[in-house]
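A quick aside before the break. I want you to see a complete sequence-to-structure record at least once, exactly as it would be stored in a machine-readable document. Don't worry about memorizing anything.
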Amino acid sequence: MSLKKALLLIGASIAVAFLAHGFFLYQLTNGQFMVGPNDGTAQMLPFKQFLYNSFSDGMVFYSHQFGLGGGIFSQLAYYFSTSTVFFVTFLLVFLGEWLHIFQNPGDVLFWANAAVFVNIFRLTVVIVITTFVFRYFHIRFLYAFLGAVLYGASVMYFRHASFWEFFADAYLWLPLLVLGVEKIVREKKPWWFIFAVAISIINNFYFAYMNFLFIAIYAILRSLIKFSRDEVSMKQQFFTYLPATILGFFIGSFSFVPAVYGFLNNQRPPFEQSIEWFHFHDEIFFTSRYLLIPALFILLICCRSLYRYKPFLLFTILSLVFIVFHYSPMIGSMFNGFSAPQYRFQYMGAFAFAAAVAIGLSKFHQIPKKEKRQALMLTTFVYSVLFTIGLLTDSDAFLSFQAIILLIMAIVTVLFGFFHIKGNYKATMLGLVVTTIVLHLGVTNAYQKEWLFERGDLSATSEEFLQSHAYNHTKQKELIEAADVQDPLSRIEWVTNFRNNTPMVQDFNGVSAYSSVLNRELLFFYYTDLQIDMNRESVSRYSGFGDRANLHSLYQVSHKLVSKEDPDPIPYGFYEIEENEDYRLYRNELILPYARTTSNLYSKEDMASLSIMDREHAMLNGVIVEDEHATTSFEAERNDRINDTTITAVGGSYDNGILTVEEDTGGIDIEIGERGVDEVDDYFSFYLLNNSKTAPLFPLTINEFETDRKSLQSIYKTDINQLTVRVEANETISLRVPEGEYTLDHLALYTEDYDLLENQQQQDETIDVDVDGRHVDIELDNPDNDQMLMLPVPYEKGWEVTRNGQSVDVEQVNYAFLGVELEEGQNTIQFSYLPPFFKPTLALSIIGLLLTFIWVYARRK
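That is the input. The structure line, written in tokens, reads:
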């Protein structure tokens, strides 16, 4: 391609990308953003703001602000931490901030405003790359560009970009993988394939997996459908794919391996619901929100002569395969790692359609006129019948802007086809291409308005909302800034409206996180080890400590912010220090030192048979360790009081562990009787399961404590039904659930007086600690010969520790946190974090690059 054409391509791609986002560019002037109201504002914006601030401060690998602390490079690789698009965005914004072009890039509002422009930039690059790839199939520039627009600006791009922006990055790497295969098949040159594999796994392991499934199908079909006799044999292809794939994985391993380890170290219950092989869930000619068939594709596949041209045959077969896949939940599960079916792979079908259209149009002039007439008549019939049936069955959907524009596109396609038959081929084809692009841009904007802004509730993502009490209000930040925290050693408990990434948005160290990839040790700590209810059952998140004072003090919660309108329970030891008209700020007077030492080492196995309160007490006056390190037996001091109470059913019946609620709300009352002045809180443990498989999400209340439990059909349920709830000591504990039948069993009741916490707070001495990103440095004298030091830093692979200059083992203590054995006397300790397997995989990446260069050199020789 000449420089003139290259510049024309870039200019046209920019213009198309801007016009394709026309609706959201207009909405931007009204204070509305191209960001989804759920994960968009709860994850995409907070993560981009957080990563920008972290990278700007030189923190690439670890942050103590990511929940209770976590690996950035590994746990956020699913999102943006290894994304090329985000990295380029970061560099541009960082430079813009340095030049005073951009203001407040550390604020979430900046990233909301920037979202549409990032998506325009990405779409521009997608169109440019795809045009070059289509040109490699000997397609004229005009048709290659049309195909690139049909692929890049397909409806799935805007769905991905709006709700889960990093999903749209997959559009960039799919064409490069196809080019890589073609280079191997036609020229036996593996360099593009190596690059495409490497860049795919560096950017996102999840979409790399999906793209590799696509390219495997493509490579198999391509080996069976030869374009010419000069292509290399199947055997030669295989023995080129194999080393090229290995080298690509070697090069990208420094990113891929830590990311995959982070994913595997996550915890989500397996998807156990039945999955259908086929389900007709939408109509892909006019009304689908995932995949739309271009009218040109239908016209071209009706032309028999085109099938003699092998590239068209290849992409037509591929298109039909992905139409079948589109209606298969089982295939959706396979593309989602054999989990719950997800329709995220439809951009692959859009690529196949686009390639078939671009190739078919380049050969359209060779088709006999009679065959063209037949194809045009058949296309007219198909669209007339489908649209008529659609009007009769779902008139609202088929009278939408999207459906009407697609009908007009079909009519225009047929009209230009008849004009083409009558002569003036060049003019009619140019008119067809230009008109198709214009109408396609109309479809994209109609889709943005109808499917995303209105039905997808993007209308809720506004500048007003992002500055509201439900997200990030100045009255909240006012008290957050008033908290006299000893950063980075103290934490504040506060989230807005169950948005667990609020600490990222408001830039403080919190005790909550929401991410699809989290440290499984922490999740087990919440789910089973300490049974901490987070006021809302859901996978991929944790929040707070269930208002349990012992845990707040152990894990450095120095302050708690609550809303006056909807106040949370206040843990023992917290006292109000500030307020404004909307919020109150409380300070923890019983917080324990960041680093603590002990010689009381309790067995994790032994603690499994004891109560949740006993486990908290063991962490207060000692440490829970793996069995081989245990030195002390824990003596339980509190008895289960449940057998000394009277349990009465309310609004139904309770018998043999089965609770039947016949009224709108009911449950049980546990009568304890008069309470002593030293009885502060109750820990109530129980097993609760809604026995109805079709029951929706339901509320559960125990006195002042409120939480929600997922339905059995929800793919976001935790499958954790053994709960422990802390409530203030009262004569009666009242458990309430909606009408239905429940299994309610394994009841236990313990009472806390906090004498142990208060004693420990007075006895523990402060240890000098310096926390700096991925390093934690500690200086301590150990005259009493304590055996273990523990930190409130989550344990995960990647942590290493040196003691007095010698490398020693990192211990996993208190179920999910860091510890190290001590020596008597002076101990100089440094904990350091790097992503899991980072050093060996970085070496592997360098080896991969060297081997690739050697291969290049050898081939040239």
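Two observations worth writing down. The radius of gyration is 31 Å. The mean pLDDT is 94. We'll return to this after the break.
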